[in-house]
Amino acid sequence: MRIVKLDEASRKNILADLLRRDPNQYGTYADTVQTIIDTVKRDRDKAVFAYTREFDHVEINASNIRVTEQEIEEAIKEVKPELLEVMKKSLKNIREFHEKQRQYSWFDSKPNGTILGQKVTALESAGVYVPGGKAAYPSSVLMNIIPAKVAGVDRIVMVTPPGKDGKVNPVTLTAARLAGVAEVYKVGGAQAIAALAFGTESIPRVDKIVGPGNIFVALAKKAVYGHVSIDSIAGPSEILVLADESANPRFVAADLLSQAEHDELASSILVTTSMELAQKVSEEAERFTSQLSRSDIIRKSLDQYGYILVAESMKEAIETVNEIAPEHLEIVTRNPFEDMTKIRHAGAIFIGEYSSEPLGDYFAGPNHVLPTNGTARFFSALSVDDFIKKSSIVYYSKEALHEVHQDVEAFANAEYLTAHANSVKVRFEEEES
Description:
Layout: E1 3-5, H1 8-19, H2 30-43, H3 45-56, H4 69-78, H5 81-99, E2 106-109, E3 114-122, E4 125-129, H6 138-151, E5 155-160, H7 170-179, E6 183-186, H8 189-198, E7 208-210, H9 215-224, E8 229-230, E9 238-243, H10 249-260, E10 267-272, H11 275-289, H12 295-305, E11 306-310, H13 314-324, E12 328-332, H14 336-340, E13 348-351, H15 358-362, E14 388-396, H16 398-414, H17 418-425, H18 429-432
Parallel strand pairs: 1-11, 4-5, 4-7, 5-6, 7-8, 9-10, 9-12, 10-11, 12-13
Antiparallel strand pairs: 2-3, 3-14
Helix pairs in contact: 2-3, 2-8, 2-9, 3-8, 4-7, 5-6, 5-7, 6-7, 8-9, 10-11, 16-17
Pathway: Amino-acid biosynthesis; L-histidine biosynthesis; L-histidine from 5-phospho-alpha-D-ribose 1-diphosphate: step 9/9
Protein name: Histidinol dehydrogenase
Function: Catalyzes the sequential NAD-dependent oxidations of L-histidinol to L-histidinaldehyde and then to L-histidine.
């Protein structure tokens, strides 16, 4: 991995480099995605079947697009019992964490005759996109479905591309069943997002779409936003490790590579105050890479977006972390909890040398759907909040309104909205006359 001494110029160059990974920069695909969306919106099932044939090389029709109960039962039998038990443990941790995020309606009644409040209501429906084909991502299934279930969403739909045999990966289906979802459709790509957003004869529309996917899925979610809600426009995975001379270089190198293997566009960054650690981590990363199964992807990722940044002080290192606003942040320093309090921008924070990032991906409980490409400056992890909406409650008695009606009218008149003022004034016109 390349080692760079931090200064203002190098920091700006690295930030510009990382921003090139942003899905919003991939304008060359936007027209293709928009065509797919428009065609599905117009031709509905016909378009979905045609695109599945073109992109996934599978014949799907109205009779087999929805996964049957028999297919789910058969899938569960194919999953190794050991993996099934691990998935159940993970599900329990994820559910318990998200149950603590629940919000409830509240009302505040005052003696002057007013009642103000907030009514919390779960969304009626949500669609979950799960990448498919040869790959299986049961962790994504659990992370996207469980918060929706905890929130109380009535109808949760999962879409995922089928393999060339026309079937959904058995581990993916098993995870859906464990999480409590039986409505699963064999469709992927931008056409799946369009079907969820606008509905087809086979797939009723939903209110919100969540879940990761490739660039076509990301751009499709961006294109349908406004017709439906979405979680975020997810970019390639990223990890940043903040470390000082006390860190174990083998642990740090291993953690950096855990994200580099995701994708050639993944970003792995070490920010440290120790040049000695920087050199050791670089050596360990090379040693590990030569042994790992996805070494080609790891090398390309590190060559493009892998950095070891050496700062003059911990203050400068933390400033750099906040400027990058990483998706995953590991803090491996002498005083990790103290340093954590100075972090303003990160999707998830892992504290100490035994809190490696894959814990968050699979098992610990917090959601692994996180903001990328610096959007941790203003976005949060997927949560129960993503599956609820809040309605304000306002009640004023006649007496309570009487006390303030002239104030309301004055405010409305100041904005030259006389109908607004009249709406309040008319209730007391007999008194005024």
